[in-house]
Amino acid sequence: MTPAGPFPLPLSAYPDLPGAGLATILRARVDADPFNAVATGIFLLAVLHTFFASRFTSAAHALQKGHDARAAATGVPTSPNVGAELLHFLGEVEVVFGLWAVPLAIGIWISRGWDTVTGYLDGVNYTEAVFVVVIMALASTRPIIELAEAMLRKAANIGGGTPAAWWLTILTIAPLLGSLITEPAAMTIAALLLRRQFYELQPSTRLKYATLGLLFVNISIGGTLTHFAAPPMLMVARPWNWDTAFVFAHFGWRAAAAVVLSALAYYMWFRQELRPLGATAPPPTPVGPTIVRRRIPVWITAVYIGFLLWTVVNSHHPALFLGGFLFFLGFDRATAAYSTLEDFRTPLLVGFFLAGLVIHGRLQAWWIAPVLSGLDRTALFVASSILTAFNDNALITYLATLVPNLDLRMKLAIVAGAVTGGGLTVIGNAANPAGQALLDRYFDDAVRPVALFAGALAPTLIAAALFLAF
Known about the structure:
Elements: H1 22-32, H2 35-51, H3 53-74, H4 82-90, H5 96-112, H6 114-123, H7 127-139, H8 142-158, H9 163-181, H10 183-197, H11 205-222, H12 231-237, H13 244-274, H14 298-313, H15 318-334, H16 345-361, H17 365-373, H18 377-388, H19 393-400, H20 408-420, H21 432-439, H22 449-468
Helix pairs in contact: 1-17, 2-5, 3-4, 5-6, 5-16, 7-10, 7-14, 7-15, 7-16, 8-9, 9-10, 9-11, 9-13, 10-11, 10-21, 11-13, 11-21, 11-22, 12-19, 13-22, 14-15, 16-21, 17-18, 18-19, 18-20, 19-20, 20-22
């Protein structure tokens, strides 16, 4: 067992090797704490698991289908197959990092003892994960969705209110709302509206993935018009003294331009598929709980908006936004005729996903920090974008605040790269798991990571060009 000491080692505790290459630095850090290699190995296995999650889901469906066929042949009532249920569990992307946190905890226990396990897990900051659970639950309620839908309908009606007009409206305006109501809330609203106005109309598989990729990228960059709504921006705003004026001047207008240009580019590319949507498809199913649609009084909608704003304003104070959420649950129950919080499973799974990612991500600073600190501006932007695809982009920007003596151009490159690459994978941005969880049913078995990457690549390159060109 390794002697007791700080875990993980702070970056300042590693040997200072001026002029040494990256490989030498990383080797020295593994020598200083061999568990670094173990933690990163487990993290890489978890990342690989996310890429193969759809394989587990396909295998689960095949196993259950065979089980059902055998039951029908013998005249026995069918039932869930245990093996199929286990494979389906392994295919849930939202549980992957929490699942791999178990071998991580066992490894820490074996090498350092149980007190280190509890001390480490207690020291992890789960505020963002809990916040996402609350904001998703609030944003998915009927008053908020119907309000957002009414606002977006005015823009969609300019284009005739067609599915194509709705598609373009949702994918341009909703992501920019993330700069006010936070990215997870904007993702929840956009995904629920896309379900009703687009995915229910049975588009082609290619268009489904292009839409999902565009949604992820636009949400990731669309929250950068302010300094308080996007998690990767939140991580650096206070340490680097960035306010909304600064953020908008360096990121916001570029992000808004990229959102609009990417949506228009995809619209032009897929216009022959978008225009016929809805002509022969069945009517879309309603968004939200299937209850009697009474007109929601204005005062009830105002109260829901108040709960949403309270949560956004106090996003760094879990005691306050959790307390507000408890009051919300009581109010939601009292106004059940207008809105009932029925789907709490999806927000909980997304929160579990992010909590697991934070548990693993905090142990990756030993190699991410030297990678970020040894590159020029363009290489730093590219590295930040690539690393973001395999880590939450808020983790990348947080680690950047730990790197000493970064000049302004380097700081801007890291943050721009982090938000640009946030749509390439489901783990690239805190809001992505929410979008995937809400839209996963429209993809065969599950969302395929390679197809998602392909769908997000073009808008990612458009955003990169805008951020690097100025």
